[in-house]
Amino acid sequence: MSAEMELFYEKQGKLLIKNLQSRHFEAYYCHTRQEALETALSLIPEGSSVGWGGAISAQQIGLMDALKAGNYRTIDRDTVEDRDAAMHACLNADVFLTGANALSLDGQMVNIDGTGNRVAAIAYGPKSVIVIAGMNKVAPTLQDAISRARNVAAPLNQQRFLLDAPCSHTASCSDCKSIGCICNQILITRHCREGRIKFVLVGEELGF
Ligand code: SF4
Q: Is the shortest distance between the CB of 158 and ligand 1 below 6 Å?
């Protein structure tokens, strides 16, 4: 990454942290993936049960691998027979890890979900929610963040599943009502009670 980009992310990150804190989220800015990994681990007490939904950014900083290698009770829906039971168990986990489809500079988060397990856990259930987000997710306004989530994150995410929906072919959103639509729920998280939700912002491109 160029020095200019690093500075851009760092300065935007400073403003975003201030705005997140004004909404009573906990927020941390990390320059690198390694720093983000250490910060995220410091927020998870040993022995905790930890689940996750769509959290590619958390994977990219090595968080799931570190948790599995450490003294934590991980709930990984991809490695168990009963995926649905694992997703329900995540709702009662001590800690839930997630990414963000978009963040507005004024400190709001937008997430889109097909199954609904991820947005459900963000909204209610786990005692602690940790959001790992690269600064590439930041948009100037809430409207821009919603647009990013709908027009960039969702069609990109669909390339993983290639379900029966227009964006599987066009890579652009046509606000579909297709059987393979992955945009069933859209959650805006605009405020937080008692620091339940923590943001670990990373000055690198992560996820999509
Ligand atoms: S075309 Fe449908 S599935 Fe694809 S991004 Fe738009 S609403 Fe979501």
A: yes
Would you say residue 143 lies in a domain? yes
Domain containing 8 — which CATH number?
3.40.50.10420
Categorize the per-residue pLDDT at 54 as very low, low, confident or very high, splitting at 50, 70 and 90.
confident
In order of 5, 81, 92, 153, 168, the CA distances from 149 in angstroms are 22, 31, 27, 5, 16
Atom of ligand 1 nearest to the CA of 173: 6
CA of 108 to the centre of ligand 1 (A): 22
Q: Is 207 a domain residue? A: no
**How many independent structural domains does the chain possess?**
1
Q: For ligand 1, is residue 167 a contact (CB within 6 Å)?
A: yes
Domain that holds residue 143: 3-202
Ligand 1 closest atom vs CA 112? 8
Read off the pLDDT of residues 140-192 as tens digits, 9 standing for 90 and up: 999 999 999 999 999 999 999 999 999 999 999 999 999 999 999 999 999 99
